[in-house]
Design brief:
With 140 residues, the protein is α+β, with helices and mostly antiparallel strands. The chain is built from 4 helices and 5 strands, in the order E-E-H-E-H-E-H-E-H.
Length: 140
Amino acid sequence: MIVFDLKCRKDHVFEAWFPDSASYAEQVAAGKVLCPVCGTKKVEKALMAPNVAKGEARQVAVADKEKAAKIRGMLKEIRNHVEQNCDYVGPQFAEEARKIHYGEAETRGIYGETSDAEAQALEEEGVSVQKVPWLPRENS
């Protein structure tokens, strides 16, 4: 296994594991590698320094990996909960959120996609929205 630091077009840096460099290249080319913060498929390798940890530094690295694994687990739980309990409205998220807010549609949990500007406009209108880091499925 090989680990790469990756960076999306919005400069979010994250770590991803691959069986080898060829697998990394194939997955990126196929659009299977997504930024866990904003979900974009436009990612590239970030500048990395070799990790030569010894003793206490190695223990810290292991603790950091365990913390990251725990956070990934929580994000998976959030995704599962949202998918099981909310309606997916896709790119019509902002329009549907407004309809619900103004009583023109049934009150329910929804999720989908919207631009940062549109999310801000919703907030300014008093429509409560929340961005959630959306991890891709591991079996995809």
